[in-house]
Specification:
By secondary structure, this protein is of the alpha+beta class. The chain is built from four helices and five strands; from the N terminus they run H-H-H-E-E-E-H-E-E. It has a five-stranded antiparallel beta sheet, with helices on one face. The termini are far apart.
Length: about 170
């Protein structure tokens, strides 16, 4: 009889813990939507404002040419994906075209860039699956100084592994 009471008491205790975990979990998700994300650091803003589009090789060109090391997670003949050196989430991957072809930013896109733009997004989907981001992820393309673009070689940020906030910043 004591065992049954003990088990019943333990079950009641576990239900309370589970209920509180469930409430905590729901509150965490709700609060993540209410709390604004940490603003972009001054260094990132300064880098974006100082960056100037040019035909000179970018850091991404140097990564493509293996002059600078990177943790590559995907590569084919058109696209390269690698981990960001300053991640903003547990998963933060940059996806770039191997050939710039004048596509320094999204605002510079022309009709001839449609295929590579689609390839970048499709690659983001493939890499997200590879990285186990079944619960969701965010795609970001910064464009221009006010968009906080610091490298003028179009690139897609694949960000995931945590609850994203809205508005993004």
């Amino acid at each position: 009889m004591a065992d049954k009471k003990k088990n019943g008491h333990e079950m009641e205790k576990e239900e309370k813990i589970r209920g509180s975990d469930d409430i905590s979990s729901r509150l965490g998700v709700i609060s993540s939507h209410l709390i604004t994300q940490v603003p972009v650091t001054m260094a990132e803003k300064e880098a974006a404002l100082a960056a100037v589009p040019s035909d000179s090789p970018t850091i991404f060109d140097k990564i493509i040419n293996k002059e600078i090391p990177a943790t590559v997670v995907f590569e084919d003949d058109k696209v390269l994906a690698f981990r960001d050196i300053s991640p903003q989430a547990p998963t933060h991957i940059l996806i770039i075209p191997k050939v710039r072809d004048g596509l320094t930013g999204l605002s510079k896109a022309e009709e001839r860039h449609c295929e590579i733009l689609g390839q970048l997004l499709y690659t983001a989907k493939l890499v997200a699956k590879q990285e186990g981001l079944e619960d969701g992820f965010r795609i970001v393309i910064n464009d221009g100084p006010k968009g906080c673009q610091s490298v003028y070689h179009i690139h897609v940020h694949l960000i995931g592994g945590r609850q994203m906030n809205w508005p993004p910043g």
